[in-house]
Structures are given as structure tokens and as C-alpha cells.
Amino acid sequence: MTPSLVYLVGIPGAGKSTLMGELTGTCRRERVESSRLPHDVLSVGGQVVGAELGAAGVGTDALADRRTVIERATEWIASCPYPLILGEGDRLASRSWFTAADAAGYRVRVFYLECSPAVAAARLAGRAPDPDGGRWLAGSSARAATVAGHAAATGWLAAILDGHKPPMALAHTVRRIVPELGQLS
């Protein structure tokens, strides 16, 4: 079976971490604090089924500096360490990371969670202060759209998801598109 990389992109507050939690919620997690790429090994019934990059609840944003983490992640994925790799967030959402995963033999599937900036800002209101008056959110929105556009042009974009929908409905859609995710439950 071809290994798969499932990656969620979207602006902060779009629901990426919530959706990832819905997809992996029944898995047992074992933390690996690797110097190359920290991740959680996911298992069900004692069987390793995959890995989630970064840390649960914050995704790849928990990883180090963008430039160095992409280099380390590229080396890490070249060894095809898991049959299913899941990730979300800004740190690895890049053409170079997806290209490296594809070159390593992974079937890359990117899901773009669209969400209005107003809804995202409301969701983020309790989490972190907004020191720059929304410029960070606007820049992040443009970056997520660019990454999704490249993924679509390369054939990696699996779907554009409505980030306003309930996480359970979104998880159902993602599982329908990526049958390998069925092993997570």
C-alpha cells in the first residue's frame, strides 16, 4: 500500500486542530521528541497506524523555525517512517515539504479549510492577543490560499472544506476522500 500524507491548511482559527482532533481522537498517542521531527505515533488496538506531526492541538506550529524544520522534515520523511502521516498548520505547509513527501513515495493530500476572517478572529479571541490589528491573520490567509493553489496545480489538493461546518461533518468528508483514515478508528 502506498503511504499517505494528509495535511490540513487554512488560516488560524479555521478549525485545523479541531478537525485533526476529530480524525485522531480514538488513537492512542506516544510522544516522540525526535531532534529531527517531533511527532506523536498513533496506534489503535496496539497496532501503529501512523503519526501526527508536531503536537496535538497546535500541529506543526509547535515545531522550530520554518527553514530548519523543513530541512529536517525532508530528511525524516525520506525514510518513509510511517504508512500514514498527518499534519496541520503553517510550519510545514509549503511546496518544498509536499514535494519532498511526494518524492519519498507518499501520496500527498492537502485539505484547505476555508473560513471567513471574522469567524477565525472570533475563534482566536480567547487564545492569543492580536498585536498587529489583523495583519498577521490577513498574511496567514494569503499564505494558506497560495499553498492550496499550488497543491491544486500539482494535483495534491484533495478538497476545499467549509471551515464553518461542524468538525464531525468535516471529518466524515475527509475520511470519505482518504479511506486510509478509517484505520484510525
Structure write-up:
The structure is a single chain. With 185 residues, the chain is an alpha/beta fold. The chain has a single domain (4-184), classed as P-loop containing nucleotide triphosphate hydrolases (Rossmann fold), CATH 3.40.50.300. Helix content is 37%, strand content 24%. It is built from six helices and seven strands. The chain has helices at 16-24, 66-77, 95-103, 117-124, 135-154, 167-177, and strands spanning 4-10, 28-32, 39-44, 47-53, 84-88, 107-114, 157-162. The protein has a seven-stranded mixed β-sheet, sandwiched between helices. Strand 4, helix 2 (66-77) and strand 5 form a beta-alpha-beta unit. Helix 1 (16-24) crosses helix 6 (167-177) and helix 2 runs parallel beside helix 3 (95-103). The protein is globular, with a radius of gyration of 15 Å. The two termini are 19 Å apart.
How do the strands and helices of this protein lay out in sequence?
Layout: E1 4-10, H1 16-24, E2 28-32, E3 39-44, E4 47-53, H2 66-77, E5 84-88, H3 95-103, E6 107-114, H4 117-124, H5 135-154, E7 157-162, H6 167-177
Parallel strand pairs: 1-5, 1-6, 4-5, 6-7
Antiparallel strand pairs: 2-3, 3-4
What Rg, in angstroms, do the CA atoms define? 15 Å
In total, the number of domains comes to 1
Low-pLDDT stretches: none
Q: Can you say what the CATH homologous superfamily is?
A: P-loop containing nucleotide triphosphate hydrolases
**β content, as a range?**
15-25%
Bulk shape: globular
| Major sheet summary line | 7 strands, mixed
Which CATH first-tier class would you pick? Alpha Beta
Average pLDDT, all residues: 88
Report, as a whole number of angstroms, the end-to-end distance: 19 Å
* CATH architectural category: 3-Layer(aba) Sandwich
Order of strands across the biggest sheet?
Answer: 2-3-4-5-1-6-7
How many alpha or pi helices?
A: 6
One letter per element, helices H and strands E, the order comes to: EHEEEHEHEHHEH
